[in-house]
Structures are given as C-alpha cells and as structure tokens.
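Students often ask why inverse folding is considered easier than folding. One informal answer: many sequences map to the same fold, so there is more than one right answer. In these notes we will look at a single instance of the problem. The structure comes first.
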C-alpha cells in the first residue's frame, strides 16, 4: 500500500514537473528580431484587489462533486466579496480551470483570476511565502481533527503543485450560507482582508448536495473551446446528421452499487444529487433504490419510449461501466443508431448536454451536471424511474 502511494506520488510529481517545464518554456519569452537575442516579456499587469481573495481545494470526490463544490464556492466568493482564485480541477493530476471552462463566462458573475495568474503575477509581492496561512473548518470545543493542509495525496498535491506551502494554519467555525448577508459580516470579522488577504481553505466553502439556488450558476460554466470543438467533432463523426438523438447516462459501476445500498427509503431521506428529483425541502419526496440503480429493463424501456416520442434516430450512451448495448438494441430495434464512445468524462458530459433529450440518474452528480447545463440552455431532461421531469423552472411538459 505504502509503495503504491509512493509510486503514485512519483508519477504525479513527474507529471507536474513536465507541466511546469512546458509552462516555463512557453511563458513570456520571445526572440528579438533586430538583435537576435532572447528577451523576457513583462506579464500583463494585474491589479491587486484590496477586498482580498478566496482560494479552496476541490479535494472531495470526482468531477460531479467537484463541480457542485465549485459552484457553491463561487456563490460564497460573491457573498463575501473576495476575488475567486479559480481552483484547478483534481483529475489525479491538477487540470487548470481554464483548460476545461471559459474564464470569461465565470467572470460575468463575479471577479475571478486563474490560479496560475494569481501565483505568477500577484502572489510574489502580495502573498509571499511567509504570509501563507491555511484555514480549516472546525467545530468548536476541539472535537475536529487538527488543521493540516496536506495530510492526504489530494490535499498535498493540490497546494504543493501550485507552489504553495503554508507557514501555519487557523481554524474557523463559520457558515457557508451564501444566501444571507450576515455571512459576509461573520467572515469579515473573523478574517479581515487587511490581515488575511487570501483565504486559503482546506475544502470548498459549500455543502453537498448543491443548494437549489446554486443550480442556476451553472450558466457560468461554459466549456472551453478545446472541449467544445472535440465534442462537436465527435458528434459530427458518430451521430447521424439531420436527425435527433437521445442522450442517456447509465451509472452502474460497482462503486455506484455500493452507494445505492445507502438508500434508506424508510427514513425518507435524500442522497447525493437526489434533491434534483425529490425536491430540496425536507419531506417533499423520497429517493428510492430504483431511482439510484434502475433495472436494465426500465432503462431500456424509458429510452425506447423517449426515442419514439421525439422521433429520434440515435441514442448516445454514456457510462463508466456497462453500456447495456444488447438490452438497448432489443428495446430500440435495428433502425436506431446506438453510440457509446467512452471518451473522457468531460466529453461524455458535453455531448449529453447537446442531446435533443437527456435521461439521467436522479442520485448522480455526474447526471446533475448535464441536467444543469441543459436547464441553462432550455433543453429537456428526465430521469430513470422518476415520473416527472425535474423540478427546475425549465421543464418541457411534453416529455
Ligand atoms: N466517461 C464517463 N465517466 C463516467 C460516467 N459516469 C461516471 N463516470 C466516472 O465516474 C465518476 C463519478 O463520480 P462523480 O462525477 O462524482 O459523479 P457521481 O458519483 O455519479 O455523483 C465521474 O467523475 C467519471 O470519472 C460516464 O458516463 N462517462
Ligand atoms: Mg461521486
């Protein structure tokens, strides 16, 4: 186990070194034509924000969880009026925010700066190594574990890969409720911006699942040109031109079977992203095991009914595991094209968001991400083993 951890760390170390070298070699260096000598460009000036900055690690879970936390953290940055340092995504190695999403779209909502711009252009003068304080949420009374910023692979790499080492840590017991004005006052009293110019939080200042209000912030998560053009190329290459396609997300890997065993129908609780189906207020609905782990039969039936309702001629199947092509083929007949490419997750998400209709899993935050993007663009979604379309304001009644 120890050697596995070490070899993974070495692998990440190497990856980061390669990234760092390529970043250095491409940054701001040009050859002067007249003199044939190498000169260093000045980086574009970026002004320091005296309201302070918010930085946090997207260290919990995989992409769907990270995206939910990101939107919660974005809402908090606006509420406490600090510039948000756009957190890199954690994909085993760090992926700069802007590799997957457009910075301009987020900045339409609130002031943001990329993590690399912050470290390169502002940190040296305004947040030098001796000022780097890490912060952890902690319950009063000493019942929480000690505040350590790099106690796991994830946390360690998140900060160190950005060149950040903390001189000390502090604990806080403050609300993450971005919906009330008092939250700003509490944070300002505990961490005034002149004394704590950067809030570097161990985890995202957001709950999970996402609040109903934060769903709407998804309109500011717009795929980068690189992802969008790869998405469009795959759609053009694999889906029939001129027809409609239904996108489905099948969540059936072993980790998911274990998750669904936590569904406790008797307690009427919700689980992970299930509020998108059962409602955000306690007691409005109950998540069921069938919603979490729909049978092969119900997936195939719901898909076939939807295909015939909207007159689609193709189905795009996204899954990390079994695409159930035989079951789908029997239910759909031979005239409907079935496409399962298993590309990297961001491309599956981006393609599903383009479908003429999407059918997802109520409990999955991966499905929720697709549904949110579709809501933002006025596109319809439904869920396996859930009677109604989702509860967000944009609902197409005909499905
Ligand atoms: N490519 C691909 N990966 C998937 C799919 N479904 C799940 N995964 C992988 O499994 C992870 C599931 O974790 P997460 O995103 O947190 O969603 P959740 O666990 O379903 O709430 C994703 O981030 C992907 O890495 C899929 O349809 N396509
Ligand atoms: Mg997850």
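Output (designed amino acids):
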């Amino acid at each position: 186990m120890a050697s596995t951890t070490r070899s993974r760390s070495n692998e990440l170390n190497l990856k980061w070194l390669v990234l760092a070298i390529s970043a250095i070699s491409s940054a701001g260096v040009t050859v002067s034509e007249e003199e044939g000598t190498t000169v260093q460009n000045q980086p574009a000036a970026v002004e320091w924000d005296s309201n302070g900055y918010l930085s946090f690690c997207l260290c919990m879970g995989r992409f769907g969880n990270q995206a939910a936390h990101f939107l919660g953290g974005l809402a908090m940055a606006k509420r406490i009026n600090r510039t948000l340092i756009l957190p890199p995504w954690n994909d085993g190695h760090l992926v700069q925010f802007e590799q997957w999403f457009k910075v301009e779209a987020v900045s339409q909502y609130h002031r943001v700066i990329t993590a690399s711009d912050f470290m390169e252009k502002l940190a040296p003068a305004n947040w030098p190594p001796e000022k780097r304080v890490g912060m952890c949420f902690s319950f009063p009374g000493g019942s929480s574990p000690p505040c350590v910023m790099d106690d796991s692979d994830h946390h360690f790499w998140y900060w160190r890969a950005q060149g950040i080492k903390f001189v000390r840590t502090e604990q806080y017991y403050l609300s993450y409720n971005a919906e009330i004005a008092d939250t700003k006052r509490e944070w300002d009293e505990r961490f005034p911006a002149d004394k704590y110019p950067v809030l570097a939080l161990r985890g995202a200042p957001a709950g999970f699942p996402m609040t109903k209000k934060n769903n709407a912030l998804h309109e500011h998560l717009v795929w980068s040109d690189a992802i969008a053009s790869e998405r469009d190329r795959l759609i053009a290459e694999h889906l029939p031109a001129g027809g409609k396609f239904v996108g489905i997300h099948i969540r059936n890997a072993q980790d998911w079977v274990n998750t669904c065993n936590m569904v406790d129908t008797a307690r009427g609780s919700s689980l992970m992203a299930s509020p998108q189906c059962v409602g955000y207020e306690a007691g409005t609905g109950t998540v069921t095991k069938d919603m979490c782990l729909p049978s092969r039969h119900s997936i195939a039936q719901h898909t076939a009914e939807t295909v015939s309702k909207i007159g689609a001629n193709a189905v795009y199947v996204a899954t990390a595991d079994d695409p159930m092509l035989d079951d789908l083929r029997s239910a759909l007949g031979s005239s409907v094209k079935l496409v399962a490419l298993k590309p990297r997750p961001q491309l599956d998400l981006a393609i599903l968001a383009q479908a003429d209709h999407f059918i997802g899993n109520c409990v999955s935050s991966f499905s929720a991400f697709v549904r949110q993007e579709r809501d933002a663009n006025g596109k319809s979604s439904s869920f396996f083993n859930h009677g109604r379309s989702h509860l967000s304001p944009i609902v197409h009644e005909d499905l």
